Amino acid sequence: MPKPTRILLYYDGSPEARSALHRAADLALALGAHADVLAVVDTGSTMSVGEWYLSDIAFGNVRHAMMGALKEALDHMTGFGIAAQGHMAFGTVVDSISRHAGMLDADMLVIGHRTRGRLARWLGGSTHAELVERCKGRTVVTIACD
C-alpha cells in the first residue's frame, strides 16, 4: 500500500477534533503529506434544532464560529510547518467529508470520535460506519479525546 500523500481532517473545534488535529499534524509530518482541513456548517442538525428554520443571524453566527475553528486548525498546522489548506462546506458532515475526500483525492481521513450514549446508539447507526462505506478505498482514522 502506498503511503498517504493527502490527509483530510474534519475539524469543528470540539475536544475530540482537537485531539484529531494533533494526530493529523503528527501524521502529516511523519508521512510528508499535504493536509486539508474541512469545517462544516451542519445545516441538517442546525435546522432540526430550530424547527427547520434558520434565521440569517443564526446562520451567520454558526458560519462565523466554523470559520474561527478552521482558522484555529490552520494556524496549528502552519505553526508546525505543515502545508495545509482550509475548506468550508455547508450541509451534513458525512456528505461534506465524503464529497471533499473525492474532490481533493484524499488518501486518509482523520476525524475525532465522541462516544455516544446508549440511547443514541439504540436510535441510529454509526456515523463513522457510514463514512467508511461512502469513502471506500480511503483510510479513515478516528481519534478519541486525549
From TrEMBL:
InterPro entries, per the entry: Rossmann-like_a/b/a_fold, UspA
Occurrences of domain UspA (ranges): 6-137
SUPFAM superfamilies, sorted: Adenine nucleotide alpha hydrolases-like (SSF52402)
Family membership: Belongs to the universal stress protein A family.
Protein name: Universal stress protein UspA
Organism of this sequence: Caballeronia glathei
